[in-house]
Amino acid sequence: MTHLPPAVLSDIQILAAYAVFLGSYLVFAIGKFPGMKIDRPGAAIIGAVLMVALGVVLPQNALHFIDFRTIVLLFSMMLIVGYLRLAGFFEWITEIILTRLKPRHLLPTVIFTCGLLSAFFVNDIICLVMVPFVLSAARRLGIKPLPYLLAVATAANIGSVATITGNPQNMLIGSISAIPYRSFLFYLAPVAVVGLLLDWLVLHIAFSGRGMAEASVEIPVVALAGDRKTLIKPGIVIVMVLAGFIAGVPPAMMAAIGAAVMLMTRSRDPQQAYQQVDWGVLVFFVGLFIVVGGAEKAGLGDWLLEFARTWNLQSPAIFTVAVAALSNLVSNVPAVMLLKSVVPGFVNSHMGWLMLAMASTLAGNLTITGSVANIIVVERARPEVEISFRDYFRVGLPITLLTLGFGMLWLWWMR
Length: 415
Prior knowledge:
By secondary structure, the protein is mainly α. It has one domain. 69% of the residues lie in helices and 0% in strands. It is built from 19 helices and no strands. The chain has helices at residues 11-30, 40-53, 68-86, 89-99, 106-120, 123-141, 146-159, 168-177, 181-207, 232-247, 251-263, 270-274, 279-297, 300-310, 316-330, 332-339, 349-362, 372-381, 389-414. It is globular, with a radius of gyration of 22 Å.
């Protein structure tokens, strides 16, 4: 990202910048502006416009605050995953796995399937795909779907911690920190694997004997619909993209190449793929870059650095707790955006970035509103299953504490 030289702002502009910043983050925290239908992307755009209109950010400099590597990576991965979804790739994998294993293995199967897929693809998409299959499997078995739906949400969050492409905040961290994909995977994949095991343990204890699938019941095998030939090209492209990531090609460039290859088609209208892109998330990122950039020009960065020194944020335990609390207060992406100016000042900034990715992701399992993945599961399941705050929190709390604890200790040891 290009860093602009500091500009002299009047006291009124500094005050206005902080007011816009705090107003935007208030909406990020509560989801909507009180009394109005302004959501998080809307608040980010309004905040960005105000930063420019008030002269905090000059129009000709606004684009310099946007990290286009993050935007390109996020958009490209959404497009690739969109094509995979339209081709039935995720349904094909999920149906094979869920209908060809013994029922007593259903819970770990759901957990590790969600975790593995979320590690390499955006976790929100995995939740969208997995919920209908879990509900279908529960109906066939005549069991309560609640533990398996909770498994989808928690495992998608945990699995996504493993790689740069697992979730939006990791993409942001990967682009800003320039940590190689392989290094990210090396340090955080063990956190994801152990986290999934802890997830399985907590859910098994919490729901043991309460409608879980028993060994005596068989899951019917369902014939897979659709033409498998449509999976050939998307499959080749995603293997190529993942190989490029691991080989060290910059993630944004590799994902953009994969998206471009996907668009070279004679059989599918690109408009269908564009509809799979979450444009609201892209808008949110663009606006947020400018809002935070304007606040940093007004002195927020210096204040955060002083705060980090005062509270010793370089301590793994303190930093993990601070990131987890902030992520649940304002959501993980705004939290990462806020702390991105603090981590480069750490003695070991490489480990600081990894700690930020780990804590901001795993903290999403604390409550229903902790991550978008959780909300997707709750909303997609609502016609058949009502997941209450209490239902989620009784497993979300121990899962979050256990996974954050292990992640912190692991990265501290690897340091």
